[in-house]
Amino acid sequence: xxxxxxLNLSPLKEPLxxxxxxxxxxxxxxxxxxSGFSGKNIISLLCGDGRNDTxxxxxxxxxxxxxxxxxxxNATLCNQSATTTHMVGDSASSVEFFVGVAIVCFLYSMxxxxxxxxxxxxxxxxxxxxxxxxxxxxxxxFLWLVCSSAWAKGLQNVKDATDTEGISNTLAVxxxxxxxxxxxxxxxxxxxxxxxxxxxxxxxxxxxxxxFVYKETRWHSQKFSTQPGPxxxxxxxxx
Length: 239
Hints:
Layout: H1 15-35, E1 38-46, E2 52-60, E3 69-71, E4 75-77, E5 80-82, E6 85-86, H2 92-118, H3 120-125, H4 128-162, H5 164-170, E7 180-185, H6 190-214, H7 218-225
Antiparallel strand pairs: 1-2, 1-7, 3-6, 4-5
C-alpha cells in the first residue's frame, strides 16, 4: 500500500471535503469574534445637588468581572465616600471552554483537510481513518452544543452585570438617597452575540458532516451490502 503524499483537490468538490473547509472557517469566526473583545460602559451618577459624576466600566476577554475595578482606592462620589469596588461575576470558564473547543476544531479541520487532499488513498484503504474521523466528529458535535450553551449563559451574565441594574446593585453609592446611577453609553456586544451564533452554527455544520463521514466507514458499507437487491428472491435449499 502506497502511503506517500498525493495532492488531489477533488475532495473539495465533494461534501466530505467542502464541509470540512466550512468547519475550518466557522471555527475561526467563533473564537475570533470573542477572544479579542474589549468594551467600556460609561456610568453616570446623578447627584441630588445637581452635580453629576461619571465612572468607566472596562471589561474584556475572558470576562473575569470580579477583577475589574469600578472604583480604585478611596474616592468621593456625590459627596459620599466610596472605597475600592469591583464588578460582580466571572464568565471566564464558559468563554475559555468555548474558545478552547473552537481552536481544537480549527486545528482538527486543518489536519483532516491535509489527509483528505494528500492521503485520501490511505484514508479509504483502512477502517481506522474513517471510524476515528466519525467518532471524533460526533464528540465535537456534542462539545459544540455544550460550550455554546454555556457561553450563551455566560454572555447573559456579562450583560446583566454591566447594565444599569447590575451596576446599581454593585455600587453602594447608588443605593444612597437622592443618587441615581445609569449606564449612559454601552459597549457594543455585537461581536459576542455573533460568537454565540457561530457556536450553534458550528454544531449544525459538524452534525451534518458526521453523516458524510459515516458514509466512509465500513458500518455504512456493511449495512447496504447486507440488504437484498430489488426483485431478488431467496432460493430454497434442496432437500
